[in-house]
Amino acid sequence: MGYPVFYGHRSVFFVGGNGTQAGRTAYAGGCTQDWWDGQCPGGTDAEKTAAMGKLMVNGGPFADEAVCAFTGVNRRITKTGCFAGVEAGMVAYVVETPVAGVNIATMRYAITEVDPAGDWIVIGDATGTDATVTAKVGGAFDTLQNALDETDASCRSVTIYTNLNETPGASIDVDTGGSVMCNTFKRVVGFGTVPGDMGIGGGLYQSALSILQAGAVDAGRCVTLDAGGGARPVVMIDGAENFVLENLHLRNNTVTDAIYFAGAPRNIVLRNCRFSGVQAVIDTAAEHVLLEGCYSDDSVAGHHFVFRGQDNVMLGCAARMAAGTNLANFFGRSSAVIGCILVGGQFGVRGINAGAGVLVLGSTFYNTGSGGIVSDTADAMTVINNVFCLAPGAVGIYVRTGGSVVHNDYNAFIASDGSALTPAASGCVGGEAPAVGPHSLRVDPQFADATHCDFRVRNAAILRGGRPGPDGRATAMGAIGQEAVGALRARMMNAGRAGILR
């Protein structure tokens, strides 16, 4: 009895919405991705505001009409004068009354034609016989849970934009995502006023490093999902694959993880998310988990990220760690930590058990208490282009109970008080300490202001001491090595080439 919008179109839905949000509903419509893109060709905030204004009124449906006549032969829904302003490409939630599903299936249908006079709309891929229906066009959902439950990304991708801070009474349950085989994703993206304003390039964007430097999450630059202090995950990913969370702050639970993974799903992306006041961020056997630009702080009670699945990547993340905690533990699988910043804690990255192969590339470890990298019988640790400025007495790369470091070079080692640091050591009887590598340095990176987490480096040896790229040119060590700190006068005098003041 027809096909929903999700079978033939990428689609966009909202939680919260515009204005006072007084009209949001559990059964909102939305729009196709093509309609949204057509409304916002320049990607400007003004275009997005106007598009949202066409889709909803104070979060409620743009059109919410009962006692409409559905005609099966031409898929037309008619009610005189009630659909003015509705456009093809919007999505209508249609339910038959008084008994649902007798002559037309309850679904979200793409609108394919509209009457210029506003008397009727045509819904695509609908089959059935004549019936009386209620049609809701556009609008925003009242909760993220309803938006997740009422959308389907198995055939085409779905984006759910939310600007609603929530403290739900139970874990948000994600039981469907996209399709690994079809490359479709279900994405939940936080925003403030218009979609995109909390992402990179948006007016409300707050990077992981800027949060670290500020010392606190700015609640106005993310959407908060709060467990309310309950002993439950904030989000439970229950079998969903190809699922994305962006621009969200998950916080305030006890005992368990911020995100609990049931089973071992694949292709989970956490982008520009924040985590605080939780026992741990994740402890999962999921595969292909990407954490990009995420931040976690020292209110996380345990080790922040525990990976038990294959091919997980931390990219451009930052963390402030409590004593005795680790940033990432990798159990028996291959994964990577790239361009990340860690302040405090016990160990930065720990490889555990046979099969663990971890690449640590271009990262900065500051004042970490015991070691930057530790191997506990990991098969293969590869450590390149990092800055280890650790607590006095710590070890840069430590083979504690066994394992192998297959490559360790182009790294810098120094204690945070400026004293010498042991770059590598072995705790195994008869074991060898990892080779430091001929291009590694034992020098002070001369951070701009480490006390306030400004890890730009002044030392030219660090800026130009990294592993050469394919073109033979040297790269920088550490996560923030690409920007020299120098006087403006010096940079001006060296026009045409980089000027670095030491």
Quick synopsis:
With 502 residues, the chain is mainly beta.
Q: What does this 3D model show about the protein?
A:
The longest helix is centred in the first third of the chain and has 11 residues, at 45-55. The model is unreliable at 483-502 (pLDDT under 50). The protein is 8% helix and 38% strand. It has a nine-stranded parallel beta sheet with strand order 14-17-20-23-26-29-32-34-36, with helices on one face. Among the domains are: 26-40 and 53-137, Elongation Factor Tu (Ef-tu), domain 3 (Beta Barrel), CATH 2.40.30; 143-303, no CATH class. It has 502 residues and is mainly β. The N and C termini lie far apart (73 Å). The protein is built from six helices and 39 strands.
Supply the key terms.
mainly beta; 502 residues; elongated; nine-stranded parallel sheet; 6 helices; Elongation Factor Tu (Ef-tu), domain 3
